[in-house]
Design a protein that fits this description.
single chain, 184 residues, mainly beta, eight-stranded antiparallel beta sheet, DNA-binding
DNA sequence: TTGGCGATTGGCT
DNA sequence: GCCAATCGCCAAT
């Protein structure tokens, strides 16, 4: 699922109009991953991870940032993919409408920032992202030439697994130079 | 009921 | 590169 989502188009219906972007960086949190929120079983917070593949799991991280994930294994099995970076394509003025001034290069770079730009929060938790609605993932999208891989970012548990995937060379990636090398 | 903690970010150096 | 901010969840009490 983490590889499948790369290059796909993510569409958000905002007040001013559609905000369209391309998924360029993901991280996988598979079944039985100690770093995954589903690891300790189903709870009220993480229930969306156990929905049929393609549903949104949104949670608040560090009390400051919402993070958007896509369930990848359900129904009944908890796993997901974190969206870490997007490439803005259209409706950029709508994404910028919120909050303070932010450079285009930083608008959707990083999991918390992309959720903020798209105004995604807990209200979107549990939504089916593979059917058209306020937030959905299009079936189309330009093909991805080359996929890079690295370890995941910001983990203490399961930190060594190479489960981060990105569109090689894309300008909107969130990792450091080292992690954005094609194989890190 | 409570204390520790986390899939982050932005400001400052 | 370092560090504080900030709050819901959950395991332990």
């Amino acid at each position: 699922m983490a590889r499948f989502l790369l290059g796909k188009v993510l569409v958000r219906e905002l007040k001013g109009g559609l905000a369209v972007s391309r998924i360029v960086e993901t991280e996988a949190y598979p079944v039985n991953d100690p770093a995954g929120h589903a690891f300790r079983g189903l709870t009220p917070r993480n229930r969306s991870l156990f929905l049929r593949a393609g549903h949104a799991y949104v949670y608040l991280c560090y009390g400051t940032s919402y993070l958007l994930n896509v369930s990848s294994e359900g129904p009944g099995t908890g796993a997901g993919v974190l969206l870490r970076a997007l490439e803005p394509l259209a409706g950029i003025e709508h994404m910028r409408r919120t909050g303070k001034e932010i450079r285009l290069a930083d608008l959707t770079r990083g999991p918390g920032r992309l959720a903020a730009a798209l105004q995604v929060d807990r209200r979107h938790d549990g939504m089916d992202l593979f059917s058209r609605g306020p937030l959905w993932i299009g079936s189309d999208g330009a093909g991805v030439d080359s996929i890079g891989e690295s370890i995941r970012i910001g983990l203490t548990k399961g930190a060594e697994a190479r489960l981060r995937y990105f569109v090689a060379g894309n300008a909107y990636l969130s990792g450091t130079r080292r992690l954005n090398a094609k194989s890190a």
